[in-house]
Amino acid sequence: MVRFVTNTTKESKQDLLDRLKKLEFDISEDEIFTSLTAARNLVEQKQVRPMLLVDDRALPDFKGIQTSDPNAVVIGLAPEHFHYQILNQAFRLLLDGAALIAVHKARYYKRKDGLALGPGPFVTALEYATDTKATVVGKPEKTFFLEALRGTGCEPEEAVMIGDDCRDDVGGAQNVGMLGILVKTGKYRAADEEKINPPPYLTCESFPHAVDHILQHLL
């Protein structure tokens, strides 16, 4: 049983599925669980009308959600929207009592041209300015991993998380009882494995090495 879990807010689940299929992944939509899905679930549960500070390509995941006269702010990775006027609009909504929902609070992410600021610094800026606390729905939140496991028939203790983010992937997974394997690819930086306690169950050079370890030692 496999689940692909991601904090990406740069594209909708359908776009992500299409991209993975072009890479010849044998994958179905129900095997993908994203932080955008978690955010939409929370918006529907709270019955709020969000100002959506997300990438335009992620908007299809919020189709049907009422956004006029907003009384909440949903913030993900939205480089094109992270400028003073828009952030100030969000700031004023929060001062008026709007709920702040963070799709995730990653510090940075990996782009083709190098590391870049994630949504975390912008979420934290709004929290600081308004003296409020965001509800975070993506990794490393416990509810994210538990929701991802829903329907698999697996308990956290029976699951393994493989990822390149020591805090959000490995630390978050291990906090719910999963085993966490850190891979030295993507956004990994030297000595990342020393940043969490307990440390990763295992640190591997690459994803195939992690899979080999699971097949040889955990099944």
From TrEMBL:
Record-linked Gene3D superfamilies: HAD superfamily/HAD-like (3.40.50.1000)
Keywords: Magnesium, Metal-binding
Cofactor(s) it depends on: Mg(2+)
InterPro entries, alphabetized: HAD-like_sf, HAD-SF_hydro_IIA, HAD_sf, LHPP/HDHD2
GO MF annotation terms: metal ion binding; phosphatase activity
Cellular component terms (Gene Ontology): cytoplasm
CDD domains recorded: HAD_PPase
Recorded family membership: Belongs to the HAD-like hydrolase superfamily.
NCBIfam families (UniProt xref): HAD-SF-IIA-hyp3
The protein, known as: Haloacid dehalogenase-like hydrolase domain-containing protein 2
Species of provenance: Ursus maritimus
